[in-house]
Amino acid sequence: MLKFTMPTEGNFYRGNIHAHTNLSDGHDSLEDTVLRYKEKGYSFLAITDHNFYTLKNEFSTDSFKLLGGCEIGCYKNGFHHVLAIGDPDTTKYKDGKTIAADMRYNTPVYEIVKDIHDNGNIAIYAHPASSGTDINALLENVNFEGIEIFDAMHEKTEKNGFADIYFDQMCSLSPKTFCYAADNTHNLAAAFEGSVVIKTDKLTNASIIDALMRGAFYSSYAKDGKDPVEINNFYIDEEGFAVLDCSKCRSVFIMTDMDSKLYEGPLHAPITFAKHKIPEGAAYVRAVCTHECGSIAWTQPIIL
Predict the structure, then answer these.
(1) 9-218 has which fold?
(2) pTM of the full predicted structure?
(3) Does domain 222-304 have CATH number 2.60.40.10?
(4) Among 41, 74, 167, 220, which residue has the least CB neighbours within 10 Å?
(5) Sign of the dihedral through C-alpha 290, 219, 191, 20
(6) Which long-range contacts (CB under 8 A, 24 or more apart) does 274-278 make?
């Protein structure tokens, strides 16, 4: 029964898949935004300005990749924002591609997602909590790759950046759903808290998108820019236990669709390991790690 969320071999690479510049409603230039993420040691970034696609291959190097990206607003039957993230080498969207207002206001969100997929991109539902999304709208549109479980901008400005309850509901219907954390950068002075950390053998455009599509990553919230929790491994062993290996944290919460358990060290001492017997008949298992300072890391679900 040995199953893993991430490959057993490879390197970890941190990235942010949701960032705005002064080309839409962000504060900083595209050039400054890319530079700051490079300086912070990020390995990849997606510029996702509102309703037009950014594809700037000239900013990519061997050690840093700028993905194609856009945040599309969809206002038919609700208020929906969807990220389109693409491999610059294969996306069919062109730099500057504008998502027309007629499409955004008159097209159901599932058709927006289909267009994203048809043009070679992945689709991620952005900040459902801050958007006040009806959970039924998500449950009816499970063709997303996943949802933002955390976005730093809305947590800082409105205290509604967490979407765990949405993710639990979606997992109960479709365990293949993934959770993504992001900065939703609008001002670099308040960035570098939400990220995804992929594991792959090498850093390429294709390997990043592949990891984001198949769940070979974990999501991370570094509260106030402090050191994030790092997940080294999460897997199911041959005896049917979910096993988590992480950096020092206050607690580990492991849950399935049938049960859940909180693991803590003696007298609240830090822990780096947790092991949970999965009940027979469970559909998935996932874990959440919380640091003493409030930083959090989320695994992807393992489908059973």
Answers:
(1) TIM Barrel (3.20.20)
(2) 0.97
(3) yes
(4) 41
(5) negative
(6) 274/243, 274/244, 275/241, 275/242, 275/243, 275/244, 276/241, 276/242, 277/240, 277/241, 278/236, 278/240, 278/241, 278/242, 278/304
